Amino acid sequence: MNIYVDTSAFLAVLNRDDERHAEAKAIWLRLLDDGTPMGTSSYVLLETAAVLQNRLGLDAVRTFFNAVYPLLEIVWVNAELMALAVPLLTTANRRSLSLVDCCSFMAMRRLKIKRAFAFDRHFREQGFEVQGE
């Protein structure tokens, strides 16, 4: 996997009403055209599905799992990854930083992934190169 995809990017790509939709779609299509290996975590999948269902309905969830999910390498969050992410969350002491974000950061570090497709400033703050934002 060469780039980690965050919930914020998935939502922008899939929601035509998102203010970043055009930019996100262009980035997504470029990554696909370039054959860039993309991945995400099981927590991002869960978070994306929940937000899509809430905001856009089950058709959007079906589209996500039928068209996007098969293109991704998945990092499954396990006890070891959680043990790394929880201290990051609690020591950061910031309400806007989520456990999903912290699991993403720790997964990226373990896999030596330097780039994220995200519209979330926390990725840049954590030292990652960001496509989007």
Name its key features.
single chain; 133 residues; alpha/beta; Rossmann fold; five-stranded parallel beta sheet; 7 helices; 5 strands; globular
Concise overview:
The chain has 133 residues and is α/β, with parallel strands linked by helices. The chain has 7 helices and 5 strands; from the N terminus they run βααβααβααβαβ.
Report on the architecture of this protein.
There is one protein chain. The protein is an alpha/beta fold. It has seven helices and five strands; from the N terminus they run βααβααβααβαβ. The protein starts with a strand and ends with a strand.
Largest sheet: 5 strands, parallel
Distance between the termini: 20 Å
What would you give as the CATH superfamily of the domain at 3-75 and 113-128?
5'-nuclease
Count of DSSP helices? Answer: 7
CATH secondary-structure class of the domain at 3-75 and 113-128: Alpha Beta
Write down the oligomeric state.
Answer: single chain
Mean pLDDT: 96
Molecular shape:
globular
List the helices and strands and how they pair.
Elements: E1 3-5, H1 7-14, H2 21-34, E2 38-41, H3 42-55, H4 58-68, E3 72-75, H5 79-92, H6 99-111, E4 115-117, H7 121-125, E5 129-131
Parallel strand pairs: 1-2, 1-4, 2-3, 4-5
Helix pairs in contact: 1-2, 1-3, 3-4, 5-6
